[in-house]
Amino acid sequence: MIFRLLVFFFFISIKYSYSNIIYDKNDIFITEIEVNRYMSLYINNFDSNISKNEVIKNIVLIKKTINFLQKNNPNFLLSLDNIIKKEFSNEIINDQETLNFIRFQKIRNEFISDYYNNTFDTKDLEIVFSKFTNFRVPLSKNNCLTINKLHEVSNDKLFIKNLFDNFKKKQQNFETKINNEIYNVCINTELFSKLEKEVFIYIENKTKKNFNDFIYGKANWKKNLFF
After folding, report:
1. pLDDT per residue over 99-109, tens digit each?
2. Which tens digits make up the pLDDT trace of 72-100?
3. Where do the domains of the chain lie?
4. Which residues, other chains included, contact 92 with Cβ-Cβ below 8 Å and sequence gap of 6+?
């Protein structure tokens, strides 16, 4: 009798836990719990806040992506899951929300990495910098031990080319030339991370169409991405 009551209350608790459905459209429903889980995963992985509306939008896209791959390209999904199993614990693999989050990020990041490694050039980086206004950074002639002056770099093509080379070589040796004099450009870790993030956002937007074409079966060029 006690066991039956426990089972009864267990299923009742599940029912109420998932009864707060906040999105239900086109065979996709999202609960408050899923939103909270995704928000926690996002903040932990990207160290950035995200609005509830953005969370719902992202979860919808994730579910559409996984549903499409399960129906139309199960081998791709199986290959992806095998990679994930090698990198993460069984607890993560058995947690559907976390697994789908990782699946989606890996797929999306492959498109970003492909563009960055094979297409991204100084012209792209100039576009990124064109969005900045009053982007003044310290200049030095002794490896940033002392600062000589501030310099506007948003239109400094020599510095942008130098920054591009540093990105590609995974270095942080920033320089520019003014009036035939070479200066160290003093960029700290925080600023460098912000620049990397801007580049990431730019490439994410540039690859959005190819990614969506892949997700909705309009393109074949990425079908063997993880094989």
Report:
1. 999 999 999 99
2. 888 988 999 989 988 887 777 788 899 99
3. 2-118+201-215, 122-187
4. 84, 98, 99, 102
